[in-house]
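Data availability (excerpt). The following record was deposited with the supplementary files.
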Amino acid sequence: MRESGHIRFVGRSMRVLVRMAMASITFAIIGDLPEVMGAPLSLSIVRDDGADAQSGRPILLRIGDGQLSDPLELWYLEAYCRSDSTDADWVQHTVIPHRCEVLEHSATEPRIRLRDVLADGLIVEHEITTTEDEVRFTLEAHNPTGRRSEAHWAQPCLRIGDFCGRGLKQTADGQAYVSQCFVFVDHQLNMLPTQPWATNARYEPGQVWCPFHVPREDVNPRPLSVIVPSSGLIGCFSKDQRLICATAWEPYQELFQGVIRCIHADLRLGGLAPGKRLRVQGKIYVVPNDVEKLLQRYRIDFPEHQPLDTTGTIQTAAGTGTPDVCGQPFGVEPGPDGMIYICEVENHRVMKLDPRSGRLAAVAGSGMQGYRGDGGHALQAELNEPYEVRFDRDGNMYFVEMRNHVVRRVEQQSNVIATVAGTGSAGYSGDGGPATSAQLSMPHSIVIDDDNVLYIADIGNHRIRRVDLTTGRIETLAGTGETEMPLDGQIAKGSPILGPRALFLDGRTLWIALREGHSVWKMDLDRGRLWHVAGTGQRGYSGDGGPAGQAQFDGPKGIALDPFGNIVIVDTENQVLRRIAARTGIIQTIAGGGPTTRGYGGDDGPAIHAQLDRPHGVGIDPQGRIFVGDTNNHRVRVIDATR
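Predicted structure:
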C-alpha cells in the first residue's frame, strides 16, 4: 500500500473518494477505470474544490454542508464473505474474490452505478446517490448460476479517522477503536466502551452485536455480545459533539465497533439460491447532533427494523362454522398462483381459496376416506386426513396424509396424483433406499427446498426425514426415535428431537416447532446443527414482551416466517398466534386471547381480542397477511399485515 495525501492506492484497486470539509461532501473515483480486481472501493471525505487536487479527477457526487474538518473513509465493499468465517484465515477461507466494474458515472449527476461479479458467479449491482446530508446505497444481488452462492454477508466498513478524536491509548499503528460509538439497546442509546484492550487491537467478548435472526456461526469472526440490539443503527459523535455520523443496512448481519477506528453495519446476503434475487439498501447519515431527529429518519428509512405492531384486524376468509364447507382446516399455504390452499382433515381433501372472491374449489381428494387413486386424476383419489400442503419450484403440489403415513404429489400440468414417500402403513424403515418403500409414522408436516429436496416431520418416529426427489432416496436428517429434547448447537444427525410437528423452510434454515417439546428450533441445513429459538420446553403460556427463549408454549402446531423475517407460531393449546421479532427475539401474542378464551368471535376487530378454537396451520402471503386454520371453528381466518 502507498498513500498520497488522503488518496489511497492498494494494488490495482479502484477508489471512490467521498470528501467532507467545511464546505460539502463529495465523491470522486480514483484508480484504474473501468474495472479492478478484488480490492474494495474506498470512499474518502475531503475538501470540495470541484476536482481532486492530487489526481485531477472530477468530483462525482456531492452532499450538502457537511462542516467536517477531518476526513472519513468508507471501504465500500471491503469484502464479500463466506459463512463459517474465521479471522485466522481471512483471505483464503472467508473472503470471496470479486471483480468491480463502473457502469455509470457523471461529473454532473450525484449518482454512481457499479457491478460486482463474485468468483462464485453472484452478481451485485450498486447504485450510490447523495443528498445534502446522506449517502444512499441500493443493491440488487442476483444468482444466475446453477448452484447456491457462497456469499453470506459483506462489509461496507466506515473508517472514522479523527472524526471522534483520539484518546491517549492507541494501537501500534497509531489507530484505535472508535470512541463515542453507540448502538441501541431496548430502544435506548447505549455507548460502546473503548476498553483498555483497544490499545492492542484485539478482539474481545461483546464486540459484535447480532440481530436475533442471523445464525451465530455466520457472523464476523469476532466474539459476540449476548445482548441483541433493538435497532440496526450504529454511529458515533464528532469530537466537538456537533455532529453524528451513523449507518444502517437492510438486511443487516451485525453491528460492531472495529479495530483501526471503524464501525460496521455489515449487510446480509444469506447465500442466494440459483435464480434468486435480493434487494439491499443502506444509508450513511451525517447530521447535526440530534438523536431523536436521526431516529425519526431511520424509522422511516428502515421500517423493517422497527418494533412490531400487534393491532392487526382479523376476519373469516373461508368457512361458515359447519364441517361441510371447511371441515377442520389444518395446513394453510399460499400457492404460486395467488390462491390459498387448505387441507380439510375432516373432509379428506385439499381445497383452494380465491382470497378475492372467497370461492372454494377442490383440487385433490374425492371426499372419501381411504388410500386409492395413484396414477389417476387427483380429484378422484381417496385421501386420509391431509395435514399440510406445499409446492415445489415447478408448481407441483405436495401434501402429507397423516393417517395414510404418506406424502403424495399432484403434477401441475396433468393433475395426476402419485405417492412419493411412505408405503401406507406406519413404521420406521427404508433409510438409504427408495422413499416409496420406506415407512413413516403419522407424518404431519413437509417442506421442499430449491434443490428439489423434501423434508418430512415424521412425528410418530420423532424424526425428520429427507427425500431427494430427483433420486427418490430417503434418509433420516435428525432424530433417534428417543423422546428427548435436543441440545443447543448439537449436530442434528444422531440427536433426539421430541415431537417435530411443523416445519418451515427459509433459504437453508429449517424451522421446527416441537409439539411435545413445547419449543421452536432451527436447523442449519449446510452445517447440520440444531439451534434453540424459543420456548423453555415447559408447557404453559407466558413470556410475552420478553425474549422468546424464556417463553412457554403449549403444543405448537404451525410455524411460518413473514416477509420481514419475523417468526409466526401457532400456539395451539393456548388458542393463540404468537410472533417473534426477527431482529430482537422479543415474542408477542398477535391473535387470540389465551387458553381460557377458546371459542369463536372477534371478526372485524383487533386479532388480539379474537377467539380461536385449536388453530393449527399457518400460511403468510407475500403481502404479509396471515392465514390460519381455525380448526374446530371450521374456518380459515386472516389477519391483516402489520409490523
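Summary of structural features: DSSP finds three helices and 46 strands in the chain.
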